[in-house]
Each structure stands twice: as C-alpha cells, then as structure tokens.
Write a structure and sequence with these properties.
Elements (H helix, E strand, L loop, with lengths): L2 H9 L2 H17 L3 H11 L5 H21 L8 H19 L5 H29 L6 H24 L4 H19 L20 H35 L9 H26 L1 H21 L3 H29 L7 H27 L3 H18 L9
Helix pairs in contact: 2-5, 2-6, 2-7, 2-8, 4-6, 4-13, 5-6, 5-8, 6-13, 7-8, 7-10, 7-12, 9-11, 9-12, 9-13, 9-14, 10-11, 10-12, 11-12, 11-14, 13-14
Pfam family, one: MFS_4
Protein name: MFS transporter
InterPro entries: MFS_4, MFS_trans_sf
C-alpha cells in the first residue's frame, strides 16, 4: 500500500467503513430498494397486482417508521449486534420472497423488510460514527446504499436477461447478500477508538438551547427531505415508461443508485470545507431541481438527468445530516439518529399518499412533483437557520 492509499484508508477508516457500508447495502440497497426494480417483473409474473404491490410498498414505508421507533433508545454499544441481526433478517426476507407468493404474505414480508432497513440505517450509523468514532467514514458508509441499489439493479437486469423469473432473482439477491455479510463480519468485530465528545463539555445553557433548536430543525428538515425524494424514488419507473424506447427501465434505476455512490464523498467534502448550513441548502436545492425536471420536460434526457440529480443528492442529505445530528445529540433525551430516521419515515409515508391523491384528481404526476419540489425548497429555507455553533 502506497502513502496516498494509506492516508485514504486511515482517513475514511476503510475496513470498518466498508463493513458498515455492506450492512447498508444489504438492508437498504438490496432489502429495501430492490423491490422497486423487481416490482414490474413480479406483476408480469402474476405474483402481484398493482394494488397488492402498492400495499407491499406502503407496508415497507410503514415498517421503516416502526423500525426507527423500535430502536429510539438504542446505544452505540448495541449497534454491532443490531447491524449483524438486520443483515441476516434482510437476507431471510429476500429468500422468503423466492418461495412465498401469497400477496398478503408478501405485504407482511415487505413490512418486516422496512423495519430492518430502518434499524440497519441507525445501527450502522451508530456503530461507525459513535461506537467506533469514525466520523470521516460517513461518506463511505452511506455510499453503501447507492452501491447496493446499483448492484441489485444489475443483478435484476442480468437475471431478467437470463430468463429468470422474479422468484429466482430474489434468491440470487439473498445469496449475494449472504456473501457480503460473511465478508464484512470480521471487520464488524473491530475495537472502538476512544469516544469523541461534542458540545456538552463547558457548554453554556445558551449553547445547549441552540443545540436543542438545531436538533428540532434537523429532524424537521430530514422529514421534509424524506417526503421530497420519495415521490421520484417511488414513481420513477412509471414516469419513464415508454420514454426510453428499448432501454430497460431498471437501468435508469441503476443510474439513480450510481449517482448516490460518489455523491456521498462530494457532499461530505463540501460539508467539511463549507459547513453543514451551506452544503445542506445546496443539496436540497439541487435535489428540488432534479425532482421537478420530469414535470417540466418529458424527454428521455430529462428523466435521466432527474435520476442522476435525485440519486446524487438523496444520500448526500443523509451524509450531511447524520453527522450533524451526532453533534447535537447531547441536547435531546432520545436517540437523535433514530428520531431523524423516524421523521424520514413519516415523510416517505405521506409522500406517496399525497402523490396518489393528486394523481387521482389530475391523472398526472405533475402536481406531485411540484409539491415535492416545494417541500425540498422549504427544507432548504429551514436549513439556512441551522445554528453557527454546529456549522461544521
């Protein structure tokens, strides 16, 4: 290993960060988001209808909220066990979908997958950022979600091209995830660094009050971001249907995930250099532009650009907000990361409900996309007020 690669490995805590990223790739990229790519295939295989598929997606969103609430008081010392458990349960859920074809059973499984995906997000973040003390590992950690989306999308595309049905593809995803968790397991046993402390030592009551305000503001911003991104993430395959000719829509979903991988490093770098306030505002504004593009222009280029911009910002929001939340966590009595994830979950539940109501009345997603854009702009305005004591 040369000097530059050694510095990179030390800065980003390569081993532990990759292990935590694998947990997110399994729990989020595979266990949660692979359903987006497999949903149309499960319908063509007559395993799901549009109605039962919508119920399964809704159960997943509700499960995500429930998972965040279940671990609201989780401690950093619990995080390793939770990370491993959620990876294993996610694999079991994927494997179950290879054999179970009853619509209501699938709804239950997707609800469970939503629960463990939220817990995996919180557990991996707690383990790496707080238990291990590797704050600079955040971009590598959260790039695991995008990497999981890309890898699962390509496995779905390859399986479909090889003539596999959706059940066999779920089995392929489960086996691939099992390989990942076995590779990650040794690094998850790493010993923590001495814990770093933020804010409370020598802080004044005024600073603590500022921290409480920032904590509440971050939670609200994060919930609005969950609402803003989920409409594109949920309806992108429907938006692009027929617009790309012979191109498989799953490849556009892969572009969505591909944008998320390097974006985590970009947004982390901006946060370190310019602070949370600037980077979060910019992230949300760019995301708003990406969300509304398909409503302004119905060309293939617009859809691809939207996928790249939203994919390139939604995990950037996480990369910026989660470390910022860690810095103000001392000001609240609950697990701040769990509170953020719960708010995100509420946004993800409300978003599709609003989109469905607007679509029912107008038979177009234009109103939904403009609503999502407005929500993200509101979040950006709130981000302007993030307190200076926690800018960096």
């Amino acid at each position: 290993m040369n000097a530059s690669s050694s510095i990179f490995a030390q800065r980003y805590a390569l081993g532990p960060s990759l292990a935590a990223a694998a947990v997110l790739a399994i729990g989020m990229g595979f266990g949660r988001f692979a359903f987006t790519g497999l949903y149309p295939l499960m319908i063509s295989d007559q395993i799901l209808t549009v109605y039962s598929g919508t119920l399964a997606a809704s159960a997943n969103y509700a499960g995500y909220l429930a998972g965040a609430l279940l671990v609201a008081r989780a401690r950093p010392s619990d995080a390793r066990g939770l990370s491993i458990a959620t990876a294993i349960i996610s694999i079991v859920c994927m494997g179950a979908l290879a054999w179970i074809h009853g619509p209501w059973a699938i709804v239950v499984i997707r609800g469970l997958a939503g629960i463990v995906s939220a817990i995996s997000m919180i557990a991996a973040s707690l383990w790496l950022l707080q238990h291990m003390g590797h704050a600079h590992g955040a971009p590598l950690l959260y790039s695991g979600v995008g990497a999981g989306i890309v890898l699962s999308a390509e496995l779905i595309a390859a399986g479909h091209a090889a003539g596999l049905d959706s059940s066999m593809i779920w089995l392929v995803l489960a086996i691939s995830s099992l390989v990942m968790v076995l590779v990650a397991m040794p690094a998850l046993g790493a010993q923590p660094k001495p814990e770093l402390h933020f804010g409370r030592d020598g802080s004044s009551a005024r600073e603590d009050n500022s921290s409480i305000l920032d904590a509440v503001r971050l939670i609200v911003i994060y919930g609005l971001a969950g609402f803003g991104y989920v409409i594109t993430a949920t309806y992108l395959p429907l938006l692009i249907k027929g617009a790309l000719g012979s191109v498989n829509p799953i490849e556009v979903w892969a572009v969505f995930g591909l944008g998320a991988v390097p974006s985590c490093f970009l947004w982390h770098t901006l946060q370190v250099r310019y602070g949370t306030r600037f980077s979060l505002v910019l992230n949300l504004v760019v995301q708003a532009i990406g969300v509304v593009l398909p409503a302004l222009d119905h060309s293939a280029l617009s859809y691809l650009t939207s996928a790249l911009l939203v994919g390139g910002t939604f995990m950037g929001t996480v990369t910026i907000a989660m470390p910022a939340a860690r810095r103000v966590a001392h000001a609240v009595r609950f697990n701040m990361l769990a509170g953020m994830t719960a708010a995100y979950g509420i946004g993800q539940i409300v978003g599709p409900l609003v989109a469905n109501a607007l679509y029912t009345s107008s038979h177009t997603f234009t109103g939904s996309l403009f609503t999502a854009m407005g929500t993200l702009i509101l979040a950006a305005i709130l981000a302007i007020g993030v307190g200076p004591a926690h800018i960096r």
